[in-house]
Every structure is written in structure tokens, then in C-alpha cells.
Design a protein that fits this description.
Blueprint (H helix, E strand, L loop, with lengths): L4 E13 L2 E12 L3 E5 L6 H8 L7 E6 L2 E2 L5 H7 L1 E4 L11 H8 L8 H11 L1 H5 L10 H13 L5 E5 L7 H16 L3 E5 L3 H7 L2 E6 L2 E7 H5 L4 H5 L11
Parallel strand pairs: 3-8, 3-9, 6-7, 7-8
Antiparallel strand pairs: 1-2, 1-4, 4-5, 9-10
């Protein structure tokens, strides 16, 4: 059912060392078939949330739950099998390998007999990637590489897609294409949890916005409502709202 909680963080404390805590009893949820956008100033904990959810960081306390089940400490392979996929920030391809081989590696946990059909399913979404299926991944444009990364994640038909800064290095047209794809995935039941620096564009496609501040949830509002907030920059992005006009 759309709107049911599928991901829950319950007072999660996590960081990169005992002396560097980023998430300070972080509590929030993400709901089925929605795009949930994590925003906040640098260092607020947005990317750390995704890494903790995908098992790259283990919470020191608190619980991360997927469909009501605690998943603290599960491996990335286990989480992929559970239906959680992660597209990290930056380029994460095997540049010397072909597009086809990159896709095949993304489906390494699938039964071999299922892989050709799954690859065809992904290529139907990305015609440009289909055209370059035998090219080295390093020869693709930045936008094509991002499409390949997302396509590789979609091979597993994830129920939850985590994506970190998908617009980096992309033209406005390609940003729109990626956001439209994420919206289509959410509309067909995939839960998307996204960190994105291009906040105003992302808010147009998201359902909810969770504002993080110093590793805690500061605000949970509908994305459309937050988009219209004139104090968005000053309050949530570390910027400055325009000064009021003098009478």
C-alpha cells in the first residue's frame, strides 16, 4: 500500500569513528512508493544516512528497520537480496569494461538465466545506453555514465533505491531526465530515498522533504509545501534569505 512505512531510523547514532559522530539519534521514516528527499547544510548527515542504511556504516546505537525488520549490520549483498540498492555519489563504474559487462556485474547475484532478460528490461529504459552496449564505460558522457549506474541498480528490481547527488556533472536536461525516471519508479511502487544538492529542482519531483541539522531531523514536510517556503535557503541550506525591503 502506498504511504506505508518501509524504512525507519529509530534514534540511530552513527559516524566514521568514535570521535566523529554524524548521526545523533536520527529518527525518520520513508514510505512506500514515495520520493523522500534529504536536505540540509553540509555535514548535516544526509549521505551518512544512505551509507548507514546500506550497511557501509554500522550504527553504534538505535535501529534501522526495513519493512519492520531490524537490518543493523547486514552486509551489502544481503541488503541487495532484500531489495535495497544504492547509487553512490560520483562515478562508480568499471571504466575499462564494456557497458554490457558493467551491467552483468550489477546482476551478479541474479540467476544466470534471468540476466539477459533483466538487462533488456534496463536497456528499454535507456536507449542511448543500448546504442553503446559494447563501448567501454569510460567513453560514455557524464550523463550516460549516470544512466548506466542507475540502470545497473535497477537490474535487481529494487523495492528501495538510495541515490546520492544524482545531478552532479549533468546538464539541466539530463537532470530533468534522471528526476523524471525516479518519479516514474516511485509511481510504480519503488521507494526512493535521495540526497540532492539541486534542492529546488528535486523538490518538484519529491513527495516529502526531510531536513537534517547536525544529524537530527529538524523538519518533515510535504515537498511542494517546502518548495514554496521563502526561507528555504536561510533555514535549511546554510544560505541567506533576502533581507526584507525597507518601507
Amino acid at each position: 500500500m502506498a504511504g506505508e512505512r518501509i524504512i525507519e531510523f529509530d534514534r540511530v547514532v552513527a559516524g566514521y569513528s568514535e570521535s566523529l559522530t554524524i548521526l545523533n539519534e536520527t529518527t525518520f521514516d520513508a514510505r512506500k512508493g514515495e520520493i523522500t528527499l534529504l536536505i540540509g547544510p553540509n555535514g548535516a548527515g544526509k549521505s551518512t544516512v544512505l551509507k548507514t542504511l546500506f550497511g557501509l556504516l554500522v550504527p553504534r546505537s538505535g535501529e534501522v528497520r526495513f519493512e519492520g525488520r531490524v537490518i543493523n549490520g547486514r552486509s551489502q549483498r544481503q541488503l541487495l537480496a532484500d531489495g535495497i540498492a544504492f547509487v553512490p555519489q560520483g562515478r562508480n563504474l568499471f571504466g575499462s569494461l564494456s557497458v554490457r559487462h558493467n551491467l552483468e556485474l550489477g546482476g551478479i547475484t541474479l540467476p544466470r538465466a534471468d540476466l539477459p532478460h533483466r538487462i533488456d528490461e534496463v536497456l528499454a529504459r535507456f536507449p542511448r545506453i543500448r546504442e553503446r552496449i559494447d563501448n567501454q564505460a569510460s567513453t560514455l558522457s557524464g550523463g550516460e555514465q549516470k544512466q548506466l549506474e542507475v540502470g545497473r541498480a535497477l537490474l535487481l528490481r529494487p523495492r528501495v533505491l538510495l541515490i546520492d547527488e544524482p545531478s552532479i556533472g549533468l546538464s539541466p536536461k539530463l537532470v530533468s531526465d534522471v528526476m523524471t525516471l525516479l518519479r516514474q519508479l516511485a509511481n510504480t511502487g519503488t521507494t526512493v530515498l535521495m540526497v540532492e544538492q539541486n534542492v529546488r529542482t528535486a523538490l518538484k519531483y519529491a513527495d516529502r522533504a526531510l531536513v537534517l541539522e547536525m544529524g537530527r531531523l529538524a523538519l518533515d514536510r510535504p515537498a511542494s509545501e517546502l518548495l514554496g517556503d521563502p526561507n528555504l535557503n536561510r533555514l535549511f541550506l546554510g544560505g541567506h534569505a533576502p533581507a526584507p525591503a525597507r518601507a
